[in-house]
Design a protein that fits this description.
The chain has three domains: 97 residues, Beta-Lactamase (2-Layer Sandwich); 97 residues, Helix Hairpins (Orthogonal Bundle), CATH 1.10.287; 157 residues, Heat Shock Protein 90 (2-Layer Sandwich). The longest helix is centred in the middle third of the chain and has 49 residues. The radius of gyration is 50 Å and the shape is rod-shaped. The protein is 52% helix and 12% strand. Helix 1 packs antiparallel against helix 5, helix 2 runs antiparallel to helix 3 and helix 7 packs parallel to helix 10. The chain contains ten helices and ten strands. Strand 2 and strand 3 form a beta hairpin. With 458 residues, the protein is an alpha+beta fold.
Length: 458
């Protein structure tokens, strides 16, 4: 789902808002409901007034009752009436018995009192005869809801504030928790911990922040790989430069002492050219590693290119046989001429270097579904299976007839272990892939380097 975080936040806010209003309404209704009843103590007082009025009426008479009522009215600042209601029916109509039984002139003490009415209600307490009724306007001191203003402030300000704070806290935790982890991972990465990753703790989420963490991890992978590769490249380059520099120093000493000057000058020229090639290859490799360039592609006849490369290789390695197997018709692909040429030359030259004199290196080209396959098969000793991927690493070389990766000093310019590493970067920059495998035929040894290049037939 796109915008998953948006929908999460929308859900939290929407549900939180609904709960917010429902909770406020529930609390307000419950609070007002509980505040709308006359206190039990006040109910007892009102019943006591009615009981006393009934006693005075039947024992002392109406004159005494009038004096008592006047005193209670002044005391409570209200009015009181003792009534026997009579109902006159018109048009030969009658009230039902149920209505007469429940008839009252005022409110029962058990009823709720409306908190927002301006005037206090009249309370109705019947005497024992069921006819005479004690009526009193509820004294102000007995009216429920005395703290209504304070309760309203709490319900309208304090409770919404607390609920909104809770919703905000939930949103903050939901958003900031992964951001803090990302911040921590970024800080550790900036301090040199290149193995730290941010998405490890976010496996249960699947939203924009998870994708942000995944993007950070990809960036961290690339940067850490670049840094490690650059460090390794510098270390390897410094190691590889020691031998030619030593030879240069020896040749310079020979020239200064006029010892074998001609041979020393040739050695100076060779080592200088050798170092120049090494540095150029190392810089090109560093450029491919750091920039990940997108090469400009043009139409290119791959069959003609392979023909030219094979002719050059046959000329350079005259004591070897270079065989080219490819279709007779031209095959046009979108590629970068310089990068593809350099990659193919390095791969073919590497095969020729590891093939004994008199043996054959076979280059074949054929088309598969959506790509071209170029295979370079030599007749060398092959490569131990565990090193088939390592041969594409810079400065990685294996001594022939050996099972370890001991470094050797080659007398040839291309013996520094950069050819296949450069070829891999160049092929990848062209959108292709490259891998190596040993010859599976038991009757012969050798290595097959396979290149796949994207291709759309017209």
């Amino acid at each position: 789902m796109k915008n998953r975080l948006l929908w999460k936040l929308f859900s939290i806010i929407a549900v939180g808002t609904v709960i917010f209003f429902w909770l406020i309404d529930l609390v307000a209704s419950h609070t007002e409901d509980s505040m709308s009843y006359i206190d039990q103590g006040y109910r007892a007082e009102l019943r006591a007034y009615a009981k006393e009025a009934e006693r005075i009426l039947y024992e002392e008479g109406e004159s005494a009752l009038a004096l008592w009522v006047k005193g209670i009215e002044e005391k409570e600042n209200t009015w009181i009436a003792i009534s026997r209601p009579s109902i006159e029916n018109l048009a030969d109509t009658q009230l039902s018995d149920a209505y007469i039984e429940t008839f009252a002139l005022g409110r029962s003490l058990e009823w709720k009192i409306h908190l927002y009415f301006k005037y206090n209600p009249t309370m109705d307490i019947p005497f024992e005869d069921g006819v005479t009724r004690f009526l009193i306007q509820l004294p102000q001191r007995m009216r429920p809801g005395k703290n209504l203003f304070i309760i309203d402030l709490l319900l309208q300000i304090a409770l919404p504030f607390l609920i909104l704070c809770l919703i905000t806290f939930i949103l903050y935790k939901h958003v900031m928790k992964p951001l803090k982890r990302l911040e921590k991972a970024t800080r550790r990465f900036s301090e040199g911990d290149f193995n730290v990753r941010a998405s490890e703790a976010l496996t249960q989420r699947n939203d924009e922040l998870t994708r942000l963490s995944t993007t950070f991890d990809k960036m961290a992978d690339r940067i850490s790989t670049l840094i490690i590769d650059q460090r390794q490249l510098l270390a390897d380059l410094s190691h590889e430069l020691r031998t030619p520099l030593t030879r240069l120093n020896i040749a310079v000493d020979c020239v200064e002492q006029d010892l074998q000057s001609q041979s020393a000058l040739e050695r100076l020229r060779y080592e200088s050219s050798n170092m120049q090639g090494l540095i150029d290859d190392a810089l090109t490799l560093a450029w491919f590693n750091t920039e990940s360039p997108k090469l400009e592609l043009h139409d290119l006849d791959i069959t003609a290119l392979l023909q030219v490369i094979v002719e050059d290789a046959q000329f350079e390695f005259a004591q070897h046989t270079v065989k080219l197997l490819q279709p007779d018709q031209e095959i046009i692909i979108k590629s970068a001429h310089q990068a593809l040429t350099a990659a193919l030359e390095n791969i073919i030259r590497n095969g020729l270097f590891h093939t004994p004199v008199g043996k054959t290196v076979t280059i074949s080209l054929h088309q598969e579904s959506h790509f071209l396959v170029i295979k370079v098969k030599d007749q060398g000793c092959g490569v131990p299976e565990e090193y088939l991927e390592d041969i594409f690493k810079p400065f990685f070389r294996i001594k022939q007839n050996s099972q370890d990766n001991e470094r050797v000093v080659s007398s040839k310019k291309s013996g520094y272990g950069l050819g296949l590493a450069l070829a891999k970067r160049q092929i990848h920059a062209l959108g292709g892939s490259i891998y190596a495998q040993n010859v599976t035929d038991k009757s012969e040894n050798g290595l097959v380097v396979s290149i796949q290049l994207p291709y759309k037939s017209s």
